[in-house]
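Annual report, structural modelling task.

Input specification for the FE2/S2 (inorganic) cluster complex:
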Amino acid sequence: MATHQQFNPARLVATHDVADGIRVFDIEPVDGLRPHAPGSHIDVEVLVDDRPQYRSFSLIDNAAETGVYRIAVKDRPDGHGGSRYLWSLVAGDRLRVSDPKDRFALSYRAPEALLVAGGIGITPLYGMARALNRAGRRLRLLYTARSREEMAFVDELAAELGDRLELFVTGAGQRLDPGAIINDLAADAELYICGPQSLREAFLGAWLARGRPAERFRFETFASSGRLPDTAFNVRVANRDLDFTVAQDQSLLDALRAHGVDDVLYDCEHGECGLCTIDVLEHSGELDHRDVFYSPRQKTTDTRMCACVSRVHNGHLVIDTSRHAVDTGRPD
Ligand code: FES
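The model returned the following structure:
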């Protein structure tokens, strides 16, 4: 059961491509726009195998200025089908979207902000960087991707930020050095990051190793990609005497719901809130913990996992969904 799911009818007004594999979608909700803060997102209903699923996308411009909800979607041919569905849409098509939600709140309290974007993770940081700049705050935006062609919004950001925008093209050997970058920050600076799990963990590890407060490390997740490729795997739900297979393009949480297992709570579906955690009684293969709820140390025990994003690679799972413990996540 979800704690919320409210979707409103909307219309796709226009699309345009802004980088290799990144397309902007302008969406107009039928019953009007809601105000939102920089870094906010909307949930969009997508159809995968004719079944409704939901994906979250950051709003990349202020709807009050553009008159639409503007999102950017990375094409993922090997993904779970949500981006393929959206890329198949054309102007005039109908869809359903949630109101904006702000779970990546921008604070103006710190005198200095470091923003780190990896790939499509630029989407929430684009608006945040511009908002901080217009508020006169000191900031740096570090943006990394495999190639320059895969970077979106660079010209707009460069025009506004100048040399406070720094690009790191990994295909050209340009790597971020989290420790050195954090060492240069003011003691009370805040860090905002959105990108692949490996990038986030590298910065989080360097941040905590330097004694910086966890509450000043702010992150957003997107389409949680893991360390290992997606593979299908078998699941036994011990408390239900139920066996099924989770398809390569399906999450464990979606498979549980499809098989009528309705006692798993969920909310964010991004590995953040910890509501969907379940007991792992046994497994083969390697557990790929893709959440940001548990700390790296907690993940090594392999006794609990977030069903919305985490999965097993080349193995099987035996789980128990009946225990609704209130876990404590976060870095330790
Ligand atoms: S639903 Fe929030 S962590 Fe899975």
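The mean pLDDT is 90.
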